[in-house]
Design brief:
Keywords: Lyase, Metal-binding, NAD, Nucleotide-binding. This protein is of the alpha/beta class and 439 residues long. It is built from 14 helices and 14 strands. The protein binds nicotinamide-adenine-dinucleotide (NAD).
Length: 439
């Protein structure tokens, strides 16, 4: 290549060359491609490059991923002769034998790293350890060899980040084994580790090339994590899908009780569970998957995530509870702004509360933390405004750009008053992180 003929020089005038690399001949990745243009300046000593990068990210809800008869993973890894996998420690304890048995039966060699992935392990050190496994001193993964990541949201964030850093971009396939990982963190392009004061602040955009969702994994989740995962489904329901909201109102409690229809559940409930998972994934990826680099801030899935990244680590809440507190407060704020009716605001708060999720925490009254949270978020979201998604009706949201301290305080007071008459004054069940010894 180099003279613009053999490669992909599609168009040329005096100043601009549109260049598309030779697709068939030189392409090495199944998932990533790109093209660009180069424009020279009149003085002949400078030029500007504009490039477009394209990626493919597939999502599938499937059954029994590790049943010997299921060829989904076999077909991907057999031609490569091996599978490099990073697996959450608890998942390895519960499913390790099954996973190893599967690859053995498929005659694919498995190179496996087991990682403890508690929230407190979401650190650059954990990312480094995974890089050690992937790199030259470990299994020396190729830049086109998809790493298999199996675990919860913490693992998907740190292992996804390690994959992004290895060879600058190594693909990975995600099997989310918690609800949060299955429908939100897993398919998400946002890989990360925690910073010192702000969750998830260090990372890169690198979605899995394939996300496989099998709700059978939820059978071993404890109730706390089932409930926790419901928060992210409620988020998509409130901001994007009214029908999903109504399904949660009708079946939410039963789904929690049956661990998402994996225990003592009818066929009908199992179908509802798949529908709810699919709808949540679709709503999420419709916005997040088509805006992979968060270039645009009309992001409904940021609902409940404006103040919580600051207060979640401060009071050691489980992520889902921090998000529902943020969402419930956001609903009240929207009502105070005159955007949302009182009746719909209460419906949103009541759904979370009925499912045992937290809708209130005294940390909301800590003005310093709340204002600091807004400041951090404004900086993170690009200085243009706060871009806080708030529901305007169930299934639709708009974005608040400014929340002055007076309005913030007024909304906190109104929210506290409403929540004080809810069970436990709006506190949820098992709301604190257990890996830090809190309950
Ligand atoms: N990147 C994103 O867009 C995004 C989105 C949402 C959440 N997150 C992140 O995800 C994290 C929360 O995810 P999470 O709730 O999955 O937490 P987690 O990864 O800590 O998993 C929860 C616990 O469940 C265990 N576990 C995993 N699968 C299991 C199974 N099938 N059976 C029994 N136990 C199992 C894990 O070992 C862990 O102890 C937070 O750090 C949050 O910031 C990221």
């Amino acid at each position: 290549m180099g003279n613009g003929v053999q490669g992909g020089n599609l168009q040329e005038n005096n100043k601009t060359v549109i260049w598309r690399p030779h697709e068939e001949k030189y392409r090495t990745s199944e998932w990533y491609t790109g093209s660009g243009q180069i424009t020279t300046a009149d003085e002949g000593l400078s030029f500007e490059v504009t490039a477009v990068y394209q990626l493919k990210s597939e999502v599938k809800v499937i059954k029994d991923i590790f049943a010997i008869s299921n060829d989904t993973l076999g077909n991907i890894y057999r031609p490569r002769g091996r599978c490099i996998a990073v697996v959450d420690q608890t998942v390895a304890q519960l499913y390790g034998e099954k996973i190893e048995g599967y690859f053995q039966a498929q005659e694919i060699s498995l190179e496996l790293m087991v990682v403890r992935a508690w929230e407190s392990d979401k650190t650059p050190e954990t990312v480094h350890r995974i890089l050690g496994f992937l790199g030259k001193d470990g299994c020396d993964v190729s830049r086109n060899e998809p790493v298999l990541v199996i675990g919860g949201g913490v693992l998907s964030d740190v292992a996804g980040l390690a994959c992004a850093l290895q060879h600058r971009r190594t693909p990975y396939i995600m099997i989310g084994t918690t609800i949060i990982a299955a429908i939100d963190a897993g398919p998400s392009p946002r890989t990360c580790t925690n910073g010192t004061q702000f969750k998830n602040s260090i990372g890169v955009y690198h979605p899995p090339v394939l996300t496989l969702v099998d709700r059978q994994f939820f059978a071993t989740l404890d109730m706390g994590h089932i409930r926790n995962g419901m928060a992210e489904i409620i988020k998509m329901a409130v901001t994007d899908d009214k029908e999903l909201f109504e399904l949660l109102e009708e079946y939410g409690q039963e789904l929690i009780k049956t661990r998402f229809a994996t225990m003592d559940a009818s066929e009908d409930l199992a179908k509802i569970a798949d529908l709810i998972i699919y709808k949540a994934l679709y709503a999420y990826m419709k916005h997040e998957g088509t805006n992979m680099f968060e270039t645009y801030q009309d992001r409904p899935h940021a609902y409940g995530h404006t103040w919580s990244p600051r207060f979640e680590p401060a009071v050691k809440l489980m992520h889902g509870h921090a998000v529902t507190i943020g969402m419930a407060f956001g609903a009240t704020l929207s009502k105070e702004l005159g955007w949302l009716s009182e009746q719909e605001c209460q419906r949103i708060i009541n759904l979370s509360s009925k499912l045992g999720l937290s809708v209130y925490h005294p940390v909301l009254e800590d003005t310093t933390i709340m204002i600091e949270g807004q400041k951090n978020m404004r900086r993170k979201r690009g200085d243009g405004g706060l871009w806080a998604p708030l529901p305007t009706t169930i299934g639709v949201c708009d974005y608040a750009q400014e929340v002055e301290p007076d309005l913030l305080n007024q909304a906190v007071i109104a929210h506290k008053e409403y929540c004080s008459q809810l069970p436990n004054q709006g506190a949820g069940e098992q709301m604190y992180l257990r890996d830090l010894g809190l309950e």
